[in-house]
Amino acid sequence: MNKYLLAKDDFDKFYDLYLYSFNRTDSKQRRDVLKERYDHSKVYGIMNESNLGSGLLSIPFNINFHGVDFKMNGIGDVMSAPEFGGRGGASSLMKAALSDMYQDNVTLSYLAPFSFGYYRQFGYEQVFDHTKITIKNTDLPKVEVGQHGHVKRLNINELPDDAKKMYFEANFLGGVTRPQWWWSHMEEKHSDYKVALAYDDDDKLIGYLVYYSQAETFYIQEWINSNHLSRQLLLKFITKHQSIFSNFVYESPEPDFKADLLADPYSAKLEVVPYMMARIVNLEDFMLRYPVKKMNLPKVHFQVKDSLEWNDHTYSLAINDGIVNFEEADGIGADFEISIQDLTKAAFGYRSLNSLFEHGVIKGDIKQINAVNDVFVQIKPQLIDYF
Known about the structure:
Low-confidence stretches: none
Distance between the termini: 25 Å
Number of strands: 19
Structural class: alpha+beta
Radius of gyration: 23 Å
Largest sheet: 7 strands, mixed
Number of domains: 3
InterPro entries: Acetyltransf_17, Acetyltransferase_Eis, Acyl_CoA_acyltransferase, Eis_dom, SCP2_sterol-bd_dom_sf
CATH class of the largest domain: Alpha Beta
CATH topology of the largest domain: Aminopeptidase
CATH superfamily of the largest domain: Gcn5-related N-acetyltransferase (GNAT)
Keywords: Transferase
Order of helices and strands: HHEEEHEHEEEHEHEEEHEEEHEEEEHHEH
Organism: Companilactobacillus halodurans
Strand content: 25-35%
Protein name: GNAT family N-acetyltransferase
GO molecular function: aminoglycoside N-acetyltransferase activity
């Protein structure tokens, strides 16, 4: 058993450090929300006499990556007391969590960084971006009032199962396959969120919108559409708020969102916002079950540099009629060398191997680099959830 694992009855110590580290005030809702995360996580901590010096959560999830189900642990609430800082406490806990993930057959890990540089030392890399769209109420597009369908407005805790199923069906680019407890956690944590549900003439749910407001701004948190009618109905619902709010903001998980569908693209301010990082924990499992985009590949050798010793090898990769063969090949000359961070970017579709080669990040046989490049997906991943 890992010596850093905390027990269920250590929650109060974890909660006290959480309040201090993130400058939060105590409340029943905040305590209940953190307790739910705590109870569903592997919790790590280092004591500093009678208090907790450092702590973090490793939250088990599953993700859908282009139709393949992978186990993924989300790292959250990484914290250290100021008087305990500089002793490597958080670093020790990160290493312990990654080791346990490997032992638990977890393939991937995600986290939201306070510092990209800090988490790169643990093998994480930036792969998720959001596009933040800000538009003034006077610049909202005009939407025709349709003769079909209708919208129903609810509180977040009334979100129907049909909407959750719709999220599940739309989520295939690396997002979290939300278990029921995580839906409940979202509803409790964000009890001020509202939901707009779009229905067609047969009362079939065709889309939904999760939103909230602060002062004079209308924020869109999540927007799922199954067809054009849904998009039209929900967009009309949004524009009906233009007399109430001055600004409208949507942080879309689509990193390449464009404003070309607006009558005046200049009316919207678009920002690419770096979001979360990912890490390949079990490279062998990831590559053997990877949704390859090339059915055949003659054997290629490449060396992966990683601080996790079980990933730090030279490998041979070959594909025969869609069947992947991926195995250690230490001692054989590699066609190219790549860090686990850059391999994560390429495999997730965030930046191609070709681009990494052109920028001088990786070096080696360009023909073999191109061959492996064609194996990976070329669509950037998308993630809505935060932990």
